[in-house]
Amino acid sequence: MLPDAEARTSAYERLAELIERHWDEVASLPVAPHANYEQLDERVREFDFETPIALGPLLDACSQLLREGIVHTSHPRYFGLFNPTPTFAGVLADALVAAFNPQLAVTSHAPAAVAIERRVLSFLAGRLGIPDAVGTFTSGGAEANLTAVMVALERHFPEATEAGLAAVDAQPTLYASTEAHHSLLKAARMTGLGHRAVRLIPPTGRLAIDVAALRARILRDRAAGERPFLVVATAGNTAAGVIDPLPEIADLCEELEVDLHVDAAWAGAACLSPRLRPVLAGIERADSVTIDAHKWLSAPMGAGMFFTPHRHTLTQAFRTTANYMPSAEASDPYLSSAQWSRRLTGLKVFMSLAAAGQGGYAAQVEHDCELGDRLRARLRQDRWRIVNETPLPVVCFTPVEDDSSGRLESITRHVQCSGVAWISVAQLAGQPALRACITSYRSTEEDVEALCAALAAARAGSVPRSSTRST
């Protein structure tokens, strides 16, 4: 399994060449996949796993499959979901982790790894305004949101830890906007609450949760004998980048004695910018917070984070004992996480923060917001209608002449097939809109102009050729 030193050196060199080629050329590639699934599946099936393949040709083949067969989220004109260009330091970190292969279950087996992750979590908790918070790295925001539901259940219904939800004398209920992330429905299913326990509150006209409607629903459910225990506010919802009114929601949760979880999966990165931090005002009052480092913090996939000031409750929610574990200290990661054995996720965030510094990250997120403002101005100039309101770089828009779903899908296909850029159609309170999100540190004004040109061509019904871009 381990080749000799000469073969390893040759493989390292080839891998570096392929990665460098990707960094240098991705901006000139079509953003969407070159090949379809059927074509790629046929090529993958040529690997029969019977005859060994030399590492050089194997690296070349796999690199080519990825080059032709993925949406290039590291492309500066990928304006899709929250998967920005990964930091170079993060890529190096993932390589180190793969080679050293630390196992994060107990502190005694990887004290350096545990210290690294805790340093990152402590630093970010301080920027969020909850310096006493503890936390854990997760596979992503979905696991972090699941952790939030489990911690809130533990705080309000500790009897369920041993006896299950059947021991609770009424239906526990949790609350979120209809615009919140659907991982909450998965969390309700996995915790045994069921989908019906999730009360989805319609948004206001600006797509933030309606706090008056939220209050009314909690009081109505409580009067009906149910047990409200958690409100989930979103700081930067997926479709429109809108931030729920966190101070008002925090006031309501305090008054009605329910927990507040803030899903800041992507917009939580704004805490690193002194200029943008005010958009998160109120997050410091949360009982728990989700941030995804593989979103606007630009860590390679996947890296979620969960924060809570309730140290004891987090441990109680996951605590178990096993005679095959070398220890069961309160500091052991497996005692505060849905995961047991896992890789060192935090190094790619640690190295990225160390390499860029808080100032570097602040400059990046502020630059992205400035590009978002520029895109809005250009779209208005070209007679597109902006349909969301946010200080963040998520721009939702429709053509003034026709905002039908079919028309928007057609424009999206034109842009994607052109290879110039990648956008999507989002549903905003049930209404479709074109959506462009700017989160890559490699995006520039030139890329915004290229997107606008591709949109103009799509609007006119022509498909421009894929353009190259200087890097």
Question: What topology emerges from the helices and strands here?
Answer:
Layout: H1 5-25, H2 37-44, H3 55-68, H4 88-100, H5 111-128, E1 134-138, H6 141-156, H7 160-163, E2 172-177, H8 183-190, E3 198-201, H9 211-223, E4 227-234, H10 246-256, E5 259-263, E6 288-292, E7 304-308, H11 311-318, H12 347-381, E8 384-386, E9 394-399, H13 405-418, E10 424-428, E11 431-437, H14 445-460
Parallel strand pairs: 2-3, 2-4, 4-5, 5-6
Antiparallel strand pairs: 1-7, 6-7, 8-9, 9-11, 10-11
Helix pairs in contact: 1-3, 4-12, 5-12, 6-8, 6-11, 12-14, 13-14
Describe the model.
With 471 residues, this protein is an alpha/beta fold. It has a domain at 102-345: Aspartate Aminotransferase, domain 2 (3-Layer(aba) Sandwich). 42% of the residues lie in helices and 13% in strands. It contains 14 helices and eleven strands. The strands form two sheets. The protein has a seven-stranded mixed sheet, sandwiched between helices. It has a four-stranded antiparallel sheet with strand order 8-9-11-10, covered by helices on one side. Helix 4 runs antiparallel to helix 12 and helix 12 (347-381) crosses helix 14. The longest helix has 35 residues, at 347-381. It is globular. Residues 463-471 have low confidence and may be disordered.
